[in-house]
Amino acid sequence: MTFQRNVCVSLAILVLLCQGCVERQLTVKTEPSGSLVVLNDEEIGVSPVTINFEWYGDYNVRISKKGYQTLRTHRSIKRPIRDRFPFDLFADVLWPRRIVDKYEWTFQLEPYQAIDRKKLIDSAVSLKKEALAELAGSESGKKGK
User: Fold this and answer.
1) Average pLDDT for residues 36-44, to the nearest whole number?
2) What is the DSSP string of 49-73?
3) Beta-carbon count within 10 A of 89 CB
4) By the number of CB atoms within 10 A of the CB, which of 31, 59, 66, 79 ranks highest?
5) pTM above threshold 0.85
């Protein structure tokens, strides 16, 4: 009984000593740098910024800087095969070294362009006229039937 217990304790210690580690890093760069970066509604810092992350998958990205149009987009980080069962057991627990997954996203911001109020109003009036003309045309088609 003592031998079996010693073997179990030795195996437990061996597993603890051999524990691997997977570190996941995401670096977000922007042009221009110094832009505020928000992932999934959580502010992560000013670009270029590197963070550690826990899960692979979908991220909502929002990048803003004064004098530039705010960029709202979506990105995904695909999970590598070694992070899937049963390979993840080996990488997370048994592999004796640290594994670092590094990902990098780069975004280009467009300069802010003020909206010309007159052009906006003219465009709205034109669209309204088109919509009314289409509505009048479809109603006259119904009456002719």
Assistant:
1) 97
2) EEEE-S--EEEEEEEE-TTBPPEEE
3) 11
4) 59
5) no
